[in-house]
Write a structure and sequence with these properties.
Elements (H helix, E strand, L loop, with lengths): L1 H13 L19 E6 L7 E7 L7 E5 L17 E8 L4 E2 L1 E5 L2 E5 L4 E9 L22 E3 L2 E4 L7 E2 L7 E8 L3 E4 L2 E7 L5 E8 L2 H6 L2 E4 L2 E7 L2 E8 L7 H19 L7 E9 L10 E4 L3 E7 L4 H17 L10 H4 L12 H18 L5 H15 L8 H6 L16 H16 L6 H11 L11 H8 L2 H12 L6 H7 L2 E10 L3 E2 L2 E2 L1 E4 L4 E4 L7 H5 L7 E5 L2 E2 L5 H9 L6 E8 L2 E8 L3 E10 L5 H11 L2
Parallel strand pairs: 1-12, 18-19, 19-21
Antiparallel strand pairs: 1-2, 2-8, 3-7, 3-11, 4-5, 4-8, 6-7, 9-10, 10-16, 12-15, 13-16, 14-15, 17-18, 20-21, 22-31, 23-24, 25-26, 27-28, 27-29, 29-30
The chain binds zinc ion (ZN).
The site of zinc ion has 5 residues, from α6.
């Protein structure tokens, strides 16, 4: 009530003597695009000035918002926190009162006199502490970067919306030094070079606010390669701060992967152009820390460590980009009303993350073996690793309940399971579908049926989709979903492996350099702020063979001193290490320095793997062949 009172007062003061400025053309906000502009010229303080010109309001008060949550992240970003100096001006250039009403919203009084609003935006990369994983700041691939040689413009970090103009069109002018390379997923209308040639203003168009959030841009010292996969033009834009990696070097593996994805998807409607924006993090304090990617309808933004060998980076790109590209199926073309009518400041969440993230991740693994990019053993290893990791989370938590409450405790900390158990749910339904249909139908054919029935413009009903899927498929699929996805009963994976003639056996298995079978091989000593190898290091062959002992304190990794603050970043890089890379690790063993300066070899540990059952029947083997196209 207080706020309302204030705005009436301010309105009354401003009403006197302003009528002459009312223009005569139809400049109503409701019938014109919102004109916005960003300038990337002469930036000195890592801030970008934004101007928002909405046309003329006829209302008394307007609320302007920057997103609290963006789609695909399932966490709170609060992009409004990065906004400073928020001001509104009337047609004479006088400031109009505004009130910040929460982290992401501003109330503008006397709105009918408002010509434009301006503010400055700080980037999120500079202030990241956790990369958005369980932390305060946005997940890096959803974040923003402002530095002299690179601008990552996830536009939801710069441009907001008026509550009263949720369906408005947007025009966006971006002015940048002409020397910058630019790469954008947003539709470009025109480009004008300044008289002296030093700056270029590019005008983009967005049919609605959704398109602002769905189409990131990259400006600066980029390396860009284009290639065609069937009828899709792929634009790969890479920012490598130390010029270690190039788009050209990554192009081949991206092409092979996306060609295979297109074969796998078959008739699914895709897009004429797909943009991949890759930001390589150099691991400094102000570098982004959330490794991974965020999907959009026709593009994806990925953040990965720069300090990787090309082979390892290519492999990570395949895993990450394959997943993001498969989001074209879901949630981009099959989704519920919560997704379709997404509220960026008061979002509600769908129950079906098992589908959006789980099935997507399953496809990203399955297509690799199905299209012959990886061996059956490699596929089995990735399945077993997902089982192992998922068992470290709450295996009795209802997946639909977790999904619908994903921002809250105790669900938020189980979100990561969508990539583990979620993918395994996809696998189990895939096996059931193939079993019931004698190999004619699959998880993918079901998603195609749903995509034909709904598609990107028609959301499904969140509460009835499981019944609908049951009707479209088989009672066994319905029972599986009710028991293990809605319900809380853990999945007995052995039952599904048996259907395809596989069994779980004890074995020596490949592992990485920070875990055995999903369990970390380090333990922190909070008292003295150190991180040391645990007893488990004895079962990690690379470290064990090089003489590392339990209790050895990790001092530096490739020259970086390890602290509790950067441990996530350093461990992410170590997780992504691949054989062939040279590493230098300094350890402290009871006060004595031990240096491991080696070329990495594959590390092994003990665990379980999937093997062909000796007594598998012809029927079981046939189902396995249908499943893996073996
Ligand atoms: Zn995803």
């Amino acid at each position: 009530m207080m706020r309302h009172f204030l705005s009436i007062l301010v309105l009354a003061i401003f009403l006197t003597g302003c009528t002459s400025t009312k223009p005569t053309v139809n400049d109503l906000a409701t019938s014109n695009p919102i004109e916005t502009s960003l300038s990337l010229v002469n930036i000195t303080t890592d801030k970008v000035t934004v101007i928002i010109n909405p046309g003329r309001f006829t209302t008394e008060t307007e609320i302007y918002r920057i997103p609290k949550v963006v789609q695909g992240t399932y966490s709170v970003s609060n992009f409004g926190k990065y906004v400073e100096n928020f001001k509104a001006f009337d047609y004479k250039g006088n400031e109009v009162a505004t009130t910040k009403i929460d982290d992401n919203s501003w109330s503008i009084s006397n709105a009918s006199q408002v010509d434009k609003i301006t503010y400055e935006v700080n980037d999120t990369f500079d202030t990241e502490t956790t990369g958005g994983i369980g932390g305060e700041n946005p997940f890096s691939p959803a974040g923003t970067n402002i530095e002299p040689t690179n601008y990552l413009l996830n536009l939801h970090g710069f441009i907001g919306y008026f509550d009263s103009l949720k369906n408005a069109q947007y025009k966006l002018d971006v002015t940048a030094p002409s020397s910058f390379v630019r790469s954008s997923a947003l539709q470009e209308l025109q480009s004008n070079v300044s008289a002296d040639g030093t700056t270029t203003t590019t005008t983009y168009f967005a049919p609605r606010y959704f398109d602002i959030t769905d189409n990131p841009m990259f400006y600066g010292d980029l390396d860009v390669e284009e290639f065609n996969v069937g009828d899709i033009k792929i634009v790969l834009s890479v920012y490598s701060p130390n010029k270690i990696h190039t788009a050209a070097a990554l192009k081949e593996s991206m092409f092979t992967m996306m060609q295979a994805q297109k074969n796998y998807l078959g008739s699914v409607n895709t897009t004429p152009r797909y943009d991949i924006f890759l930001y390589l993090s150099e691991g400094k304090e102000d570098s982004p820390k959330g490794m991974g990617a965020l999907e959009h309808h026709t593009s994806t933004v990925a953040v990965l460590p720069e300090n990787m060998l090309l082979e390892g980076l290519s492999e990570s790109m395949v895993d990450v980009i394959a997943h993001e590209f498969f989001h074209i199926v879901s949630p981009l073309s099959v989704h519920s009303e919560d997704v379709h009518y997404f509220d960026y400041n008061k979002p509600t969440f769908s129950k079906h993350l098992w589908m959006y993230e789980g099935v997507t991740e399953y496809f990203a693994q399955h297509f690799q073996v199905y299209e012959g990019l990886t061996s059956e053993d490699e596929f089995y290893a990735s399945i077993m690793s997902k089982i192992q990791t998922s068992l470290g989370m709450d295996d009795t938590m209802s997946f639909t309940e977790m999904s619908e409450n994903v921002l809250d405790k105790p669900y938020a900390s189980n979100y990561y399971n969508v990539y583990q158990k979620g993918a395994l749910i996809g696998m189990c339904i895939d096996i059931l579908m193939r079993e019931e249909s004698n190999g004619q139908r699959s998880m993918l054919s079901l998603m195609k049926e749903l995509s034909a029935k709904y598609g990107k413009n028609k959301p499904f009903n969140d509460d009835t989709i499981i019944d609908e899927i049951t009707t479209m498929t088989y009672p066994s699929v319905g029972e599986f979903l009710q028991t293990h996805v809605v319900g809380t009963t853990p999945i007995n994976y052995a039952d599904f492996f048996e259907k395809v003639g596989l069994e779980i056996a004890d074995a020596t298995i490949e592992t990485n350099y920070i875990q055995n079978n999903g369990d970390l091989i380090f333990e922190p000593n909070r008292a003295n702020g150190t991180i040391a190898f645990s007893e488990a290091v004895a079962l990690n062959s690379f470290w064990n063979d090089n003489g590392v002992l339990p209790g050895d304190v990790l001092k530096t990794v490739n020259g970086t001193a390890l602290t509790f603050e950067n441990v996530q970043q350093v461990f992410t890089e170590m997780y992504m290490w691949s054989p062939g890379a040279k590493i230098n690790v300094a350890l402290d063993r009871n006060g004595e320095e031990v240096i491991i300066d080696k070329e990495l070899t594959q590390s092994y540990t003990t665990g379980q793997k999937l093997v062909s059952a000796a007594n598998a029947s012809a029927k079981q083997v046939a189902l396995r062949k249908a499943w893996l196209k073996g």
